[in-house]
Amino acid sequence: MGTVTAADPHPSFLADKDAKVFVAGHRGLVGSAILRRLVSLGFTNVVVRTHAELDLTRQADVEAFFAAEQPRYVVLAAAKVGGIHANSTFPADFIAANLQIQTNVVDAALRCGSVRKLLFLGSSCIYPKFAPQPIPEAALLSGPLEPTNEWYAVAKIAGIKMCQAYRIQHGLDAVSAMPTNLYGPQDNFHPENSHVLPALIRRFHEAKACDAPEVVVWGSGSPLREFLHVDDLADAVIFLMDQYSGLEHVNVGSGSEVTIKELAELVKEVVGFQGKLVWDSSKPDGTPRKLMDSSKIQGMGWKPKITLKEGLVETYKWYVENVVSAKK
Predict the structure, then answer these.
(1) What confidence score (pLDDT) does residue 124 get?
(2) pLDDT digit string (tens) for 158-178?
(3) Of 143, 85, 152, which is closest to residue 122 (Cα–Cα)?
(4) H-helix or E-strand containing 277?
(5) pLDDT tens across 288-319, in order?
(6) Which of 30, 70, 124, 275 sits most deeply, having the most CB atoms within 10 A of its CB?
(7) What is the distance in angstroms between the CA of the first residue and the CA of the last residue of the chain?
(8) Residue among 256, 273, 287, 258 at smallest CA distance from 201
(9) Are 294 and 251 a contacting pair, CB within 8 Å?
(10) What pLDDT sits at residue 194?
(11) What are phi and psi of 275, to 5 degrees?
(12) Cβ contact 78:65 at 8 Å
């Protein structure tokens, strides 16, 4: 690792820690984890911009930034994200903003001439609603999407295809990673539009704080879900930047499933809620199973390190210190 040969004059990513790395979307759940990981590994020239400093939907601004900064590596973790309600209320925003961000960054990365490698981050929602389980990379475009977030999914699929097209036509070393359901520090704990895991953390914490006798959770608790700690994803991103230059996108998951019931019981234990957990089976369950096939990246030698219990303990601590204390 990290050696330079005559055939390959460039050092590997992990041997190039003085090089300029642009992390787009560094304030989000994913981007912040990637930034932490790069800094902990000793990368000394990581470049970031807030949305106020650089609006990635504005082509001229993105081109000017790349021309001035000349980064060698780009990690594209910036995206407009939201839950089902946001996607169905603002479909134009989701498809337009994400297409603009991806198009501007990938094209500017090619045009500026300095970028050696780019990694684009997508989402497991790119796969068809009734994809085989576990979901292999080959399931992409094999059937209709989940209608509730197709605007976001179509944009992300276009991002994968754009990376492939720029590799085929221009030789740009652009790769794509598709993570499963993520959680961890900087997650969204908003009461209306957070995902299942942060929503459970918040609800059990609030029930504990006011000595509520019970917490009611929708559904039967039987659906199976996969969760990956965002620090494990950051580790996988570094691994792919260093080791992978293929055309096909790569799934990144934990490879282990948990029922929503098991998840709720675990969150209840971690938070320390002493009341009852009640299931409202009159409410819908959603998809019965959603697991990604991550055998491709695991076959390359990467595997996750953080157990769900460890990750939940750390995420709850972050929630208490950063979300709860901020409201006081």
Answers:
(1) 93
(2) 999 999 999 999 999 999 999
(3) 152
(4) strand 276-280
(5) 889 999 999 999 999 999 999 999 999 999 99
(6) 30
(7) 49
(8) 273
(9) yes
(10) 78
(11) -80, -165
(12) no
**Helices 196-209 and 260-271: angle between axes, nearest 10 degrees:** 40
21 forms beta bridges with 46, 73
User: Tokens standing for 229?
Assistant: 């700690």
Token pair 């520090």 is at which residue?
185
Q: Which residue has the tokens 């500026």?
A: 112
**Percent of all residues in the chain with a pLDDT value above 70, rounded to a whole number:** 97
Q: What single letter denotes the amino acid at residue 20?
A: K
The per-residue pLDDT for 9 is 63
AA identity, residue 159: G
In the chain, which residues have pLDDT < 70? 1-9, 328
The helix/strand/coil state of 134 is coil
What is the C-alpha separation between 246 and 313, in angstroms, rounded? Answer: 36
Spatial separation of the C-alpha atoms in residues 207 and 209, rounded to whole Å:
5
Q: 182 near 125, Cβ under 8 Å?
A: no
Q: Is 9 exposed, middle or buried (0-12, 13-18, 19+ CB in 10 A)?
A: exposed
Beta bridge partners of 175: 119
For the annotated catalytic residues, the residue numbers are 152
Mean pLDDT, rounded, of the chain: 94
Q: Which residues lie closer than 8 Å to 235 by C-beta, 6 or more apart?
A: 37, 302, 304, 305
